[in-house]
Specification:
319 residues; Rossmann fold; six-stranded mixed sheet; two-stranded antiparallel sheet
Length: 319
């Protein structure tokens, strides 16, 4: 592995410190209660007892022994957790104290540390419109720290997004069912069919990361200033001076630019309606194919949202 800068190592340490109490306190027990193991693992054969299910009888052993024996199974607890992380250029966007990509790395750290705490394997796929990095699943704290370093230090070669590509790749490199977290802003197209197919094989959760300015324009911030001038007859006239509200929007993946006037009510309203429609359609689609979602915003704490997700899944499993 290439040498990692001191700055990256410092950021890894900071994330480890910030997420430690979340994993040990807030998420203690939650993770293991909401994700099932790979299936049922054979444990032993024992004599039949009243109340045992007939279908559990091992007929070969029964025939040899001359009396009924049954197979016993236990849940195979070990999981493979795959983190599929979007590294396209739109992830570098952020109008709060962190970018979407920084937040994605921290959330992945929380999930990865939760996984190894329960002796599960963790793997990583970083993607754009190309598979940029694949870290095979392994156990252990040292491995998880490597995963976090990869996320923080990685510099993608491409700028666009292809979610279909990474889902197809997941099915190629995994032979067993995985718990998969797909982390992206989902500013992408034509991935619906692949997500539907992949979710039949894996337990996929979509983690959507959104910046507030992707939902609504800033409008008139900061508040307008007031300028005093003298009129023609010596009377004071107060003019409302608006700050600049012309914004140049740039598509980080294509470079396409557009000028908008945030002070224009129709423009502001239309921008919000269009983006909320996109979010609602995406949410409805995820729900229709049984993909759980965790909706994260860069301007809000994420731990409560993750806790709500875990509790929702636990409640559904109990039902």
């Amino acid at each position: 592995m290439p040498q990692v800068s001191k700055e990256i190592l410092k950021r890894v340490q900071q994330i480890q410190i910030r997420t430690a109490h979340l994993v040990n306190d807030a998420l203690a027990g939650e993770y293991v209660s909401v994700f099932k193991g790979q299936g049922m693992e054979f444990q032993e054969v024992r004599e039949y007892q009243p109340g045992d299910e007939i279908r559990s009888i091992d007929w070969n052993v029964t025939a040899r022994a001359g009396r009924p024996f049954v197979k016993r199974f236990s849940e195979e607890r070990e999981l493979t957790v795959m983190l599929l992380v979007d590294a396209s250029s739109s992830g570098q966007f952020g109008t709060t104290d962190r970018s979407k990509s920084d937040l994605a790395a921290e959330i992945c750290a929380v999930l990865a540390f939760s996984a190894i705490k329960n002796n599960d394997k963790v793997g990583l796929i970083i993607f754009t419109d190309h598979i940029e990095k694949f870290v095979p699943p392994k156990k252990g704290k040292r491995h998880v720290l490597r995963v976090i370093r990869e996320l923080l230090a990685f510099e993608p070669q491409r700028s666009r997004t292809d979610i279909k590509l990474v889902l197809d790749y997941l099915n190629q490199v995994t032979t067993r069912r995985t718990v998969t977290f797909l982390v992206s802003d989902f500013i992408a197209e034509n991935y619906e069919k692949s997500l539907r197919i992949a979710n039949r094989r894996h337990d996929i959760t979509a983690i959507t990361i959104t910046d507030p300015r992707e939902v609504e324009l800033p409008g008139q911030e900061p508040p307008p200033a007031v300028l005093k001038v003298m009129g023609p007859i010596g009377k004071a006239i107060w003019w409302l001076v608006r700050p600049p509200t012309i914004f140049e929007l740039e598509d980080a993946e294509t470079g396409e630019r557009l000028l908008v006037d945030a002070a224009d009510r129709n423009t502001n309203r239309g921008y919000g309606i269009l983006n909320r429609k996109h979010i609602d359609e995406r949410t409805d689609f995820f729900r229709s194919i049984g993909v759980d979602t965790i909706d994260i915003r860069t301007d809000r704490p994420y731990i409560d949202v993750i806790m709500k997700f875990f509790r929702m899944r636990e409640k559904r499993l109990r039902a």
